[in-house]
Amino acid sequence: MRVLPRLPLTRPLSRRVATIGGAALLTLLLLAGATLMGLAMSRQMKDIVSEQFNQQQLGLARLIASRIEDNFNLVSKELVVLNLSPSLRSADLPVWERRTGITLSNLEEYGAEEIRQINAQGNEVRSLNRQGISQVQKGNFLQDPSFIWAGEGKNKGKIFFGRIKTGLDEKGKSIARLHLAVPHYQPIPDQGNGGVFSGVLLLVVNVTRLVEKYTANIQSGKTGYSWVIDDQGEFLIHPEKGFVGENAFAIREKREPKISFDAINRIQKEKMLTGQEGTGFYYSGWHRGIKGNIKKLIAYSPVFLSRKEPRRFWSVAVAAPISEVEGVIHSLYVRQMNFQLLVVLALIAAGLSLIFSELRYGKALRKEVQRAISDLKESEERYKKLIESAEDIIVTLDEEGKIYSINPYGAAQFGKT
């Protein structure tokens, strides 16, 4: 009797192994993809947050520049108003002192230190400082830059901006001073706007004090600060001791020669000293007492001293180390990575659930197959017993009509075994 072959288990096992391997591979690919995506998004996030931070710094720089402009224009207007006062033509010194003293008092908070008036002959100068001390000096003042400028008729009605000069205040602090001057004309009755040149009126301004009023309390982030340079690239204000009055291109390299300042020098030369505003970054050798190669974000905006003289301007900068934004970036990155981790864990959980489901299915399938095989064996045994005990001739033939099998009773009838 021919027995039917047992059903193999190769097919379900292969499929189960393939499913588990595919799930594991998919999990690894997801982990790798999530890591790469996290790194890419972290860099992108850093760029975005840095740019946003720099835009905030630019807003601060614009605010400082606007306030300095407004107050510098106020100082200029006060000087022009004083220049029109008849008291300046008085030979009585106390009268002159009272009037100029009013202007000095009004402008003291804006850095006004002294008012001077050189006569038309250039051989006498009256002066009054903010301490109320006045004096008259005789001498040769014909070569004073403001007097030479004022003597040119084309400059009538204009304001002279002298070069920044470095000095010390009464407390020994290094400061930068600027001379503002206007030509003074003696009006001639019935001559309209005409007049006779009668000298120059000059105001000495402590510009460090003027700009410090608006930069001292400005703080970008936790440790960022502001500084100002004039149109020659010299510091008017800077938190680093010894920088005021120094050339911005030279003092940094002198302070830290091992660090390259090409980036900030390029920003100063190509942007700040051409009256532009913008943002960028550079490397510094120090920050708030900390030394090292520190990357800083910077925003800058011009301060136009006079709209009539667009070439005369200063530049305000607000700078902060990039570590100011790295804390924010780190916080955002941690939240992002936590979210991605949750997604990956959810995918892993789903994969494990699929694997366990496949394992349970495989186990159930094996039991089902084993039960089917057992039932088949029992069926074969019953069939075998039925055929072998039958007293009839039972044969099976192949396709050519040849006997394939025969039961014992049939074989006996033919004298076969």
Instruction: Identify low-pLDDT runs.
Output: 1-11
Q: N-to-C terminal Cα separation, in Å?
A: 12 Å
Number of E-state strands: 14
Radius of gyration over all CA atoms, rounded: 47 Å
Beta-strand content: 15-25%
Q: Mean of the pLDDT scores?
A: 84
Shape: rod-shaped
Oligomer: single chain
SSE string: HHEEEHEEEEHEEHHEEEHEEH
Largest sheet: 7 strands, antiparallel
> What structural class do helix, strand and pairing data support?
alpha+beta
| Amount of helix | 40-55%
Number of helices: 8
Per-chain topology:
Elements: H1 10-83, H2 93-107, E1 112-119, E2 124-129, E3 134-138, H3 145-150, E4 160-161, E5 165-168, E6 174-186, E7 196-206, H4 207-215, E8 225-229, E9 235-237, H5 248-255, H6 262-270, E10 278-287, E11 290-304, E12 313-321, H7 323-389, E13 395-397, E14 403-406, H8 408-413
Antiparallel strand pairs: 1-2, 1-7, 2-3, 4-6, 5-6, 6-7, 8-9, 8-12, 10-11, 11-12, 13-14
Describe this structure in words.
This protein has 417 residues and is α+β, with helices and mostly antiparallel strands. Helix content is 47%, strand content 24%. The protein is built from eight helices and 14 strands. The protein has helices spanning 10-83, 93-107, 145-150, 207-215, 248-255, 262-270, 323-389, 408-413; strands spanning 112-119, 124-129, 134-138, 160-161, 165-168, 174-186, 196-206, 225-229, 235-237, 278-287, 290-304, 313-321, 395-397, 403-406. Strands 1, 2, 3, 4, 5, 6 and 7 form a seven-stranded antiparallel β-sheet that branches. A five-stranded antiparallel β-sheet has the order 9-8-12-11-10. It has a two-stranded antiparallel ribbon with strand order 13-14. Strand 10 and strand 11 form a beta hairpin. The longest helix is centred in the N-terminal third of the chain and has 74 residues, at 10-83. It is rod-shaped. The two termini are 12 Å apart.
